[in-house]
Write a structure and sequence with these properties.
Blueprint lengths: L13 E6 L2 E2 L3 E3 L5 E2 L1 H12 L3 E6 L5 H6 L5 E6 L27 E3 L4 E2 L2 E6 L17 E5 L3 H9 L4 E5 L2 H9 L5 E5 H9 L7 E3 L13 E7 L5 H14 L2 H9 L6
Parallel strand pairs: 1-5, 1-6, 10-11, 10-12
Antiparallel strand pairs: 2-3, 3-4, 6-14, 7-14, 8-14, 9-12, 9-13
Helix pairs in contact: 1-6, 1-7
């Protein structure tokens, strides 16, 4: 059950977001050179909920974490997963930050995930089904998957009676389905949503019903990285994210930038 968060007593008057501008459709330049994208609009919505002034500074992706650590911004909105850039175990958004249990603390904490990244099955259009594929219905079926991924590990654990065939990368695994060499492909829902609407799929395929968010495999998602010393900012951002969902703004942004839903 989701816990309803209370509005923080004191919210930041200004939030200095850091982002990159080469990550479409999350953050990119339109033909007129204007910065746009899902993350850009989400940052604006967060600041509106908190009655805060929102600034967005663009940096190359590999400079974002150092820039945050050096005080050039308050938070990074760039599709990061908790623990990015750190060898430490990722912290839960509800972890107690102030306890000195370790002398080596990450300079970053993370918001609640704002976008989960489910796994999905894709099938050829002529094989489309109404029900989500499950181990029983996929028994004896050929499934392509990229080698060495969580998707491969998941299939080998939960679909032992399927005929799993691995490929060196996602491109080859998807192409096997396009050519009709397998019955289904299993992979990252976000990447597959781009593939389905792109030219390389040749309009061959569709999502089979049902996202997979199995704990331990696909339960992570994109979060906002926040400077540890930014007192109360994580709580404020978590509250704003919940409000953006509750009011329907998040759904509007999602459909604007992801016309083929990966959920």
């Amino acid at each position: 059950m989701r816990v309803r968060l209370d509005k923080p007593n004191q919210s930041a008057r200004t939030i200095r977001f850091l982002a990159s501008d080469d990550f479409p459709p999350f953050a990119f330049r339109d033909p007129a050179g204007r910065l746009t994208g899902f993350n850009v609009d989400l940052a604006r919505a967060i600041c509106e909920e908190l009655d805060a002034v929102c600034t967005l500074r663009i940096k190359p992706f590999d400079e974002l974490v150092p820039a945050l650590a050096s005080g050039e911004g308050d938070a990074i909105i760039a599709g990061l997963e908790p623990g990015f850039g750190s060898t430490e175990k990722a912290e839960s958004p509800k972890a107690e930050d102030d306890t000195e249990t370790s002398s080596h603390k990450s300079p970053l904490v993370y918001s609640a995930p704002y976008l989960k990244l489910p796994a999905r099955f894709v099938v050829r259009k002529e094989d489309a089904v109404r029900e989500a594929p499950v181990p029983e219905t996929m028994e004896g079926k050929w499934i392509s998957v990229a080698e060495g991924t969580q998707h491969e590990a998941f299939l080998k654990t939960f679909f032992p009676n399927s005929l799993i065939t691995t490929y060196p990368d996602e491109e080859e695994a998807r192409a096997a389905l396009r050519r009709g060499e397998v019955d289904a492909h299993f992979g990252d829902g976000l990447g597959l949503s781009y593939w389905l609407q792109g030219t390389s799929s040749a309009n061959c395929c569709v999502f089979a019903p049902g996202p997979w968010l199995e704990p331990g495999y696909f339960d992570h998602g994109m979060s906002i990285a926040i400077a540890r010393e930014a007192d109360g900012l994580r709580e404020a951002i978590d509250y704003a994210l919940q409000q953006v969902h509750t009011t329907g703004q998040f759904g509007e942004l999602y459909l604007r930038y992801f016309p083929i839903s990966f959920y």
